[in-house]
Amino acid sequence: MDEQMGKLTALLKDERRSHQNSCRALLEEAERRAERVRQQQQQEMAQLMRTHKSEISAMVALHTKTQEEERCGAEERYALLEKDYDFLKSSFRTYKDSISEEMRSSWLRKEASWKEEQETLLLDQLTEVCGELKKSDQEKEKQRKAFESKLVELQNKFEKDLQVR
Length: 165
Known about the structure:
Structural class: mainly alpha
Oligomer: single chain
């Protein structure tokens, strides 16, 4: 029995060693697989990063190109707008000058019309005053004649009275 126990113990030790060796072998295999997966993942990540970097570079280049095209388009629109502005500015200046000339002409006509009206009014007033002056002169002449005739009459009466006395 001791012998059987010795054999069983030796067998158990062999089994334990065999189990430990197989566990170690499995663990080493798992570590190798994990390392392979890590390396694969790192390679995929590196590839993704390169792809991402190239896509970003392409997008930046496209964005820069688009911005440049927009800037060129904006410069062209600005040049056209500047030409239109200059044209409108000169057109407005011409329009302003013509309006100014029309206003000056209109004011000159109004001024001439006003002067003519004033002269007509003054002539009418002068004619009226002359008429009144003529009437006044006629009235004065009448009064003077009446006064002279009264004076002559009084003088005659006075002379008669002097002769009678």
